[in-house]
Amino acid sequence: MVSSQPGARGVVIAAPSSGAGKTLLTLGLLRAFARSGVRVASAKVGPDYIDPRFHEAASGRAALNLDNWAMRTGLVRELACMAAADADFLVAEGVMGLFDGAATGEGSTADFAATLGLPVILIVDAHAQAQSAAAVVKGFAEFRDDCDVAGVIFNRVGSASHAAILREAIAPLGIDVVGAVPSVAEIDMPSRHLGLVQAEEHRELDALLERAGDMVASGVDLEAVMGVARKMPAAATRQKRLPPLGQTIAIAQDEAFAFAYPHLLSHWRQAGAEIIPFSPLANEAPAGGADAVYLPGGYPELHAGRLAGNEVFRAGLRDAAKANALVYGECGGFMTLGEYLIDAQGNRHTMAGLLPLGTSFADRQLHLGYRRLVQDDALPWPGELRGHEFHYSRLDWQGEAEPLFEAEDARGEKLGQIRLRRDNVMGSYAHIIDMEEAA
Fold first, then answer.
1. What is the mean pLDDT of residues 359-381?
2. 47, 191: one domain
3. 20 to 30 A from 254, CA-CA: which of 78, 183, 217, 312?
């Protein structure tokens, strides 16, 4: 059993670039710690809504997104302290490379580590290199004074002699090597166009997590990982929150609509809102009497035929709109509110018909990036918001309707008036994360 220490401690798992194996190793760490009796919590740096669900499956505890670009600094601190409040240890998985963030460089994993004063364990893919790995570690360790690279896990190590060479090469740097993990071909994380296949769709997820836990337990010194970690900062001041969309909110929740940020739902509940899930894939209608209906993002394009045939669901949306409920969709939810959706095979499927638009995956185009958004009083939120856009569909047709947002990207370049509002029905491709930091 790994010994725990008084007060929650935390560490950030990062890498020089995407593809180094930090997600799989993070999951292995979470499972290995949980099996050893450590109350381990986790978070995902950045806007990724898929990885936290894998974290939850690995640790058995809720996981949050923590985003230094899209969230106010105070909210990042508050949520991090909340995640670690009843835990021994917090593992935060970084995003992309350690210093990669928005187009301006802001919001990186390094920014997150500096905000909380947490040390970084760098995952280095050692495949096809030996002493050169030390140069990579040295460069990352010295790049920013406020980012403490305190440990290294070498991944995809070829042999015991390879591990020894790596350890000898890094020894002069005075940075702890807390693990050396071999390549394990049978541990595979299935993916699709928006990233990993969702945790709830992975039929052998627990077996995969057990193998990842075994891999980490045999190749990583868990006591050394906890020794590198640093005590979490004191609890932060409670921040102003985005108000709930309504007093009673019907929210679509299933494999087609799974991309809702947990911190928003938690804050709405704390504000006294009742949240009632329903499944469009099961042909369920939103709860009658709800004064708001929320369709979050997800993969409606993979289930478009079923959604088109689920008349109880589509009629329920229309009934909610007629009853003057606020009907709001983000990304996949926005597409579902339109007239039609064309899938990747070119098949056209009828959607809810509440907004005058059609979307298509037949000619995929990547739209990716952070967004600053300004709206009037259409949504019960402050006028200036921050969010993220990540999709491959495009607008195939758009009719007459009011714009919902004035938008710009992370560089401040104007994107104009985006997406649509028709009376109490509205939506956009952007996933809203938080309000703008006060000047």
1. 92
2. yes
3. 78
In tens, the pLDDT along 257-312 reads 999 999 999 999 999 999 999 999 999 999 999 999 999 999 999 999 999 999 99
Look up the domain containing 128 and give its range: 9-231
Domain boundary among 201, 231, 261: 231
- 180 and 42 fall within a common domain: yes
Task: State whether 253 and 210 are in the same domain.
Answer: no
- 55 lies in some domain: yes
In this model, does residue 85 exceed pLDDT 60? Answer: yes
* Catalytic residue, candidates 76, 331, 335, 435: 331
Q: pLDDT, tens digit, for every residue of 108-123? A: 999 999 999 999 999 9
Split into its structural domains, the chain has a count of 2
Please determine, for residue 4, whether its predicted confidence score (pLDDT) is greater than 60.
Answer: no
CATH of the domain at 210: 3.40.50.300
**What is the C-alpha separation between 321 and 318, in angstroms, rounded?**
5
d(CA 400, CA 329): 18
- Could you tell me if residue 3 is inside a domain? no
Give percent above pLDDT 70 in the chain.
Answer: 94
In a domain, 236, yes or no: no
Give Cα 167 to chain centroid, integer Å: 33
Q: Are residues 32 and 87 in the same domain?
A: yes
Domain boundary residue, one of 197, 231, 265: 231
**Cα–Cα distance between 197 and 289 in angstroms, integer?**
34
- Domain-embedded: residue 61: yes
SS (H, E, C) the chain: CCCCCCCCEEEEEECCCCCCCHHHHHHHHHHHHHHCCCCEEEEEECCCCCHHHHHHHHHCCCEEEECCCCCCHHHHHHHHHHHHCCCCEEEEECCCCCCCCCCCCCCCHHHHHHHHCCCEEEEEECCCCCCHHHHHHHHHHHCCCCCCEEEEEEEEECCHHHHHHHHHHHHHHCCEEEEEEECCCCCCCCEECCEECCHHHCCCHHHHHHHHHHHHHHHECHHHHHHHCEECCCCCCCCCCCCCCCCEEEEECECCECECCHHHHHHHHHCCCEEEEECCCCCCCCCCCCCEEEECECCHHHHHHHHHHCHHHHHHHHHHHHCCCEEEEECHHHHHCCCEEECCCCCEEECCCCCCEEEECCCCCCEEEEEEEECCCCCCCCCEEEEEEEECCEEEEECCCEEEEEEEECCCCEEEEEEEEECCEEEECCEEEEECCCC
